[in-house]
């Protein structure tokens, strides 16, 4: 072997040795890393929980979404276009009925009213009342005023008798600070107690004022009397609604409740008659005053009489001018809080534009819409949970489906400072099975097929399928009509499970 051949062999052996050493180092690193890593536990099994239909009984719920709104709410819209010259109220302000919300530019309308007033007064001055003397007119006015005083006194007697003899039978202690309603008031307890407490002051003051009536304050006395009569009618209406909405567990029988409703309806008719008498009496007094004015003008003016038609024409023109002026003044028809105020001083707004929204935020109701299946478990008087913590009572269920939502409207009353007008709330209610032995299971326990479905059982620590027949689905539960007994155990949650899988059962 030559020297060059030996040298080539040595170089080749060095290369092989280097490759061998490199391979040995790689194997050592891999073995070292595998020793430090944690071997996963391939022996752990998926866990499932078992239950029975009897154990799940009573857990069915219906969950809805509702909107909070006020019992009384009004949107004030403009009747004509114009520039806003005043906005005397602010957003969030408490206002009474008749409060001016805003005024539009109305110089021309005020001038028209002034001109119409002059025309009317001129017509009165020219109208001859030759057939009625001043003395006769005064006697007629005096008689009308006496009749009106008697009507006011009669109104007090009727209202006082209604409160004392009819309404008070449903209060435990009507003259105390907390009168105590003795019937399920269906969310109106606070209103009924507050109204009865208010009449503790209204009736004595009204009685005291009867002896102080005179011709100068008759109009004010009539207005106050009508307000008290209307307030009594509202109280009677609330009781009638309560009587008609009592449930089967009421302390009164259906016959007694029907009698109460009939009696209160009769009383309501009497109150309406009293209110009409007051209004008619005031109209008679005003007519007598106008007749006396005409007689006095005729007696002292010495001018030729004009036809009554001229007076009516002038009066009609005056009322038309006053009506046009009133369209420039926006007033709230109800008492409440200004929740929306969409106009500002200096704005120019068109006709039929919403300017403000006023609502009674202390008296709220929740409105929701339900489908036919949920409706089967709801009834007037049922107690529901709002936001999982606030108790509410169903006060009304629409007799027909809403054509817009294709669902049925349900109204719920609740008293809580936690909810506000305009809020969206969740509503939940539990319901019982249609039969004691009905098999109702969680909907998560069923794997649905094209027709019916299957549930999982555990046999020899493995998942086994069992076909079942599906019945009615309600909320998060489903009725099984065949294939499962009420005491048969099944896997409570079948989501993600595969038949034949080995599992571990947990409690």
Description:
The chain is α+β, with helices and mostly antiparallel strands. It is 42% helix and 24% strand. The protein folds into 5 domains: 1-37; 49-58 and 435-506, conserved putative lor/sdh protein from methanococcus maripaludis s2 fold (Beta Barrel), CATH 2.40.420; 61-70 and 361-430, Elongation Factor Tu (Ef-tu), domain 3, CATH 2.40.30; 73-104 and 332-359, RNA polymerase II/Efflux pump adaptor protein, barrel-sandwich hybrid domain (OB fold (Dihydrolipoamide Acetyltransferase, E2P)); 128-305, no CATH class. The protein is built from 9 helices and 22 strands. It has a 6-stranded antiparallel beta barrel. The protein has a 5-stranded antiparallel β-sheet with strand order 16-20-19-18-17. A 4-stranded antiparallel β-sheet has the order 3-10-8-5, with no helix packed on it.
Q: Which class do the helix and strand fractions yield?
A: alpha+beta
Quaternary organisation of the protein chains? single chain
Distance between the termini: 84 Å
Task: Provide a count of the helices.
Answer: 9
Structure characteristics:
507 residues, Elongation Factor Tu (Ef-tu), domain 3, 42% helix, alpha+beta, conserved putative lor/sdh protein from methanococcus maripaludis s2 fold, single chain, 9 helices, elongated, five-stranded antiparallel beta sheet
Question: What layout of secondary structure does this protein have?
Answer:
Blueprint: H1 3-36, E1 47-51, H2 53-56, E2 61-70, E3 73-77, E4 82-86, E5 94-95, E6 100-104, H3 107-126, H4 134-166, H5 189-210, H6 218-244, H7 254-301, H8 308-326, E7 329-331, E8 336-341, E9 348-349, E10 354-359, E11 364-370, H9 372-375, E12 383-386, E13 390-401, E14 408-414, E15 424-430, E16 440-442, E17 447-448, E18 453-459, E19 462-474, E20 477-482, E21 490-491, E22 504-506
Parallel strand pairs: 1-22
Antiparallel strand pairs: 1-21, 2-11, 2-15, 3-10, 4-6, 4-9, 5-8, 6-7, 8-10, 11-14, 12-13, 12-15, 13-14, 16-20, 17-18, 18-19, 19-20
Helix pairs in contact: 3-8, 4-5, 4-6, 4-7, 5-6, 6-7
């Amino acid at each position: 072997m030559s020297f060059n051949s030996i040298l080539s062999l040595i170089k080749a052996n060095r290369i092989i040795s280097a490759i061998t050493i490199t391979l040995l180092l790689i194997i050592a690193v891999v073995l070292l890393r595998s020793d430090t890593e944690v071997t996963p536990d391939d022996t752990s099994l998926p866990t499932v929980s078992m239950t029975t239909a009897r154990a799940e009984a009573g857990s069915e719920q219906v969950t809805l979404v509702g909107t909070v709104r006020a019992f009384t709410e009004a949107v004030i819209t403009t009747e004509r276009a114009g520039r806003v010259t005043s906005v005397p109220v602010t957003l969030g302000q408490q206002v009474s009925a008749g409060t001016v919300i805003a005024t539009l530019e109305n110089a021309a309308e005020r001038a028209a009213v002034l001109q119409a007033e002059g025309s009317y007064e001129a017509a009165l001055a020219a109208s001859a009342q030759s057939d009625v003397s001043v003395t006769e007119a005064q006697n007629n006015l005096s008689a009308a005023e006496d009749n009106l005083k008697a009507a006011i006194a009669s109104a007090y007697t009727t209202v006082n008798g209604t409160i004392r003899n009819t309404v008070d039978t449903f209060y435990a202690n009507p003259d105390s600070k907390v009168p105590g309603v003795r019937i399920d008031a269906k969310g109106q307890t606070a209103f009924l107690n507050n109204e009865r407490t208010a009449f503790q002051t209204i009736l004595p003051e009204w009685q005291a004022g009867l002896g102080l009536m005179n011709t100068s304050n008759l109009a004010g006395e009539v207005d106050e009397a009508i307000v008290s009569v209307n307030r009594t009618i509202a109280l009677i209406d609330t009781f009638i609604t309560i009587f008609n909405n009592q449930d089967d567990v009421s302390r009164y029988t259906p016959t007694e409740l029907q009698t109460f409703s009939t009696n209160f309806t009769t009383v309501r008719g009497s109150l309406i008659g009293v209110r009409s008498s007051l209004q008619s009496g005031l109209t008679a007094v005003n007519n007598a005053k106008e007749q006396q004015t005409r007689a006095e003008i005729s007696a002292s003016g010495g001018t030729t009489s004009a036809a009554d038609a001229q007076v009516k024409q002038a009066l009609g023109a005056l009322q038309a001018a006053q009506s046009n002026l009133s369209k420039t003044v926006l007033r709230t028809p109800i008492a409440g809080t200004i929740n929306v105020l969409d106009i500002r001083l200096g704005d120019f707004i068109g006709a039929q534009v919403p300017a403000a929204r006023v609502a009674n935020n202390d008296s709220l109701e929740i409105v929701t819409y339900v489908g036919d299946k949920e409706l089967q478990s709801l009834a007037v008087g049922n107690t529901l949970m709002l936001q999982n913590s606030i108790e509410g009572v169903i006060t009304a269920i629409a007799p027909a489906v809403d054509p817009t939502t294709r669902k049925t409207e349900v109204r719920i009353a609740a008293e809580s400072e936690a909810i506000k007008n305009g809020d969206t709330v969740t509503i939940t209610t539990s319901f019982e099975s249609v039969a004691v032995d009905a098999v109702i299971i969680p909907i998560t326990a069923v794997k649905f097929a094209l027709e019916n479905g299957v549930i999982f059982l555990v046999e020899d620590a493995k998942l086994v399928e069992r076909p079942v027949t599906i019945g009615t689905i309600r909320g998060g539960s489903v009725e099984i009509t065949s294939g499962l007994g009420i005491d048969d155990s099944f896997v409570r949650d079948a989501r993600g499970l595969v038949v034949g899988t080995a599992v571990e059962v947990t409690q």
